[in-house]
Write a structure and sequence with these properties.
about 475 residues, disordered C terminus, single chain, binds manganese (II) ion, OB fold (Dihydrolipoamide Acetyltransferase, E2P), about 40% helix, Diaminopimelate Epimerase, Chain A, domain 1, inorganic pyrophosphatase (n-terminal core), five-stranded antiparallel beta sheet, alpha/beta
């Protein structure tokens, strides 16, 4: 008999169920159990983990309005958890609401959004252990704030766009002893460099959900159970504009959590996406989050960001400091930027290490500042430092066939000995370069851009690279 139909006096025989909650009472515990369709409770002096699979028999009774089982027999049984989760997932209520951003890409993603929502609602219902790894910028953090409106998660900030083997080891350690945990990777993890890390995470037995908008060069869907990325349905660079934080807000909305909506334009403002309307206030909020993220290690708690957004005094102080820091570098950037190529697509470079700034703005933001100062014509800005560089490319240049992800791919092939991991979007990306070789890499990039028109044609420089 299913728990949903059970009533006072009914006999339950060998029902497969899992522990979904434990409430401590005087001298014993009250356990909530679910068979995927309904819930019952029982009292016990023994200790069971959340998610423990059981076979339970006994008689149902009514204890002041709560249906409980007077347990006759109880056997710990493994392997039940996934089955019960699946049942709940099939039955949870999804809100099929119009999406905040319109267009074909989002319509095609709806099923995947609902898939994520089902997993999260089920995790909430069953007390499932969730680990949430979010990228350390306004997009990733806004998304994490949206998802934690649905689930309680062990949230951990990721200060790199790559999910390394090191990251995976740390997470597997955290998940040790948890029953069939769910690991959520938000706003990173789809690049080639994240492949091995994701592989390990999946092999550890965790269920893996990736919500990202970076080009899927690492074929992340093969190492994940739930994969939400616009690149899966749209193979043009416009896919990147559906930011991870925005997607997370859509997942929250599908769960019925509409309070997450104000986070969507903040996420988009952070990644300079214009798929939805963004106010000046959203841009400021994104700046505040970015500023805070720069000054925080990986131990940063999500709560910390939430408080700053809610606390007017703290918020204003951070905003003033962040704006001042950006303002301060503007003159230096103007003086330091160099036009290295004048043509159908121009190239500017900026040595980010010669800009006097403390932790904020970082190298990426300095490059962005330079990008904001160049004109509207097709342009590439390269911010460089000792061991790497950062790309900012405008629409005009992309239309001329110049794309950061393609250039990085060519560099990896042709200069593999001193070009390391790199990745990102068509219009914004960064890469690591062996010390002492940045100048030659810059020269090579300028050469590629010079022949940029060729790169876009079949048989040109970019042929053979698949995006
Ligand atoms: Mn992002």
């Amino acid at each position: 008999m299913s728990f949903r139909k059970a009533g006072e006096g009914d006999e339950i025989t060998d029902a497969e169920c899992i522990i979904s909650r434990r409430i401590r009472s005087r001298g014993h515990s009250i356990y909530k159990i679910t068979d995927g369709e309904g819930e019952l409770e029982f009292e016990s002096g023994s200790y069971f983990n959340i998610g423990q699979g059981l076979k339970v028999s006994g008689k149902v009774y009514n204890d002041r309005g709560f249906l409980k089982i007077d347990v006759g027999s109880l056997k710990k049984t493994d392997g039940i958890y996934p089955k019960i989760l699946q049942k709940i997932e099939n039955n949870v209520e999804i809100k099929d609401v119009p999406l905040l951003a319109s267009g074909e890409t989002m319509e095609k993603l709806k099923e995947r959004i609902h898939g994520c929502a089902r997993k999260l609602l089920t995790a909430k219902k069953t007390g499932r252990f969730c680990l949430l790894r979010f990228h350390n910028d306004a997009d990733g953090i806004s998304g994490a704030l949206a998802l934690t409106k649905i689930i309680d998660a062990y949230a951990s900030q990721q200060n790199s766009a790559t999910y390394s083997v090191f990251d995976a080891m740390r997470d597997i350690n955290t998940l040790q002893g948890e029953n069939h945990p769910l690991a959520i990777i938000l706003d990173f993890g789809c690049g080639e460099d994240s492949r091995e890390g994701l592989e390990l995470l999946k092999a550890s037995g965790a269920e893996v959900m990736v919500i990202d908008h970076h080009p899927n060069t690492g074929k992340a869907e093969e190492k994940t159970d739930v994969f939400l990325n616009p690149w899966a349905v749209n193979d043009s660079e416009s896919a990147s504009s559906y930011t991870a934080g925005y997607l997370a807000v859509e997942v929250a909305r599908a769960c019925g959590e509409f309070g997450a909506e104000p986070l969507a334009p903040v996420a988009c403002a952070g990644d300079k996406s214009t798929i939805i309307e963004i106010s000046e206030k959203d841009v400021e909020k994104a700046l505040v989050i970015d500023y805070m993220a720069t000054y925080a290690g990986f131990k940063n708690k999500l709560e910390f960001y939430k408080k700053a957004l809610d606390n007017q005094d703290l918020y204003s102080s951070v905003l003033i400091q962040a704006k001042e820091a950006l303002e301060k570098i503007t003159e230096d950037v103007k003086a330091g930027m160099k036009k290295r190529l004048d043509g159908p697509v121009s190239v500017y470079t900026i040595d980010t290490e010669r800009i006097k700034s403390r932790e904020f703005p970082g190298k990426g933001k300095i490059t962005t500042r330079c990008f904001e100062l160049v004109g509207e014509s097709p342009t590439v800005v390269l911010g460089f430092w000792n061991r790497g560089l950062s790309f900012r490319i405008n629409d005009g240049a992309v239309q001329n066939g110049v794309r950061a992800d393609r250039i990085i791919e060519i560099l990896k092939k042709e200069m593999g000995d001193f070009v390391f991991g790199g990745g990102g979007h068509a219009r914004a990306a960064s890469m690591r370069v062996r010390e002492g070789f940045v100048d030659s890499v810059l020269d090579k990039i300028i050469e590629i851009v010079k022949e940029g028109g060729e790169a876009a044609k079949p048989g040109g420089l970019a042929s053979g690279t698949n995006f």
